[in-house]
Automatic annotation (TrEMBL):
Binds 1 zinc ion per subunit. Gene3D superfamilies: Carbonic anhydrase. This is Carbonic anhydrase. Keywords: Metal-binding, Zinc. Belongs to the beta-class carbonic anhydrase family. It comes from Chromobacterium alticapitis. It comes from the Bacteria. GO terms for molecular function: carbonate dehydratase activity; zinc ion binding. The keyword 4Fe-4S does not apply.
Length: 195
């Protein structure tokens, strides 16, 4: 059975058995929190459990590396909407150690794209149209610096209210241990979760 049919078969049983009832909530984050996290598969269940979160507690936005690459991109738009329309009162950026975006090589990504059928002509056309593919595909060298960058971008966005605390953390993808890189309350820039 292919992946789609496997998912749909599970969904049919999920709905028939009314398993959804345990997840009922509304659209507003119960803890008043929006989280930008990496999309890493290791964090799907680990991140919420490590932070004591359940369905309905937060607005969870995920992307590669928990990076904000552009102040007018969809991640910032989601955070702005979370604050103004969905009652988020604080923001957390949560990246992780051993991230696939650390030191990613844009040329390698583009080579893989070509192996999968994207033509050299397409890449040349995009570059000629002014799209900086190297910068767009670039990751980061240091996870803590990346978190600081994303926090800085959020805090300094012209549409973000100045009274919103923006925290930055790094989670260990095996243990779930959180390290605070930026304390949005201004109580110091680096601290670790108690051991």
């Amino acid at each position: 059975m292919d992946r789609l049919h496997t998912l749909l078969e599970h969904n049919r049983a999920f709905v028939e058995n009314r398993e959804y009832e345990q997840f009922k909530t509304d659209k507003f984050p119960g803890k008043g929190l929006a989280i930008l996290a990496c999309m890493d598969a290791r964090l799907v269940e680990l991140l919420p459990k490590a932070m004591g979160l359940k369905n309905g507690d937060v607005k969870l936005i995920k992307n590669a590396g928990a990076l904000i690459t552009h102040q007018w991109g969809s991640v910032m738009r989601s955070l702005i909407v979370a604050v103004y329309e969905l009652r988020a009162e604080e923001i957390c950026v949560v990246a992780h150690h051993d991230c696939g975006m650390r030191a990613i090589d844009p040329n390698k990504v583009l080579a893989h794209a070509q192996e999968r059928g994207v033509s050299e002509e397409t890449i040349v056309t995009l570059r000629g149209a002014g799209i900086d593919l190297d910068n767009w595909l670039k990751g980061f060298d240091n996870v803590a610096d990346s978190v600081r960058h994303s926090v800085h971008t959020i805090r300094n966005h012209p549409l973000m209210p100045k009274d919103i605390p923006v925290h930055g953390m790094v989670i260990h993808p095996s243990t779930g241990r959180l390290e605070v890189i930026v304390n949005g309350y201004g109580e110091g820039e680096k601290a670790a979760a108690p051991e």
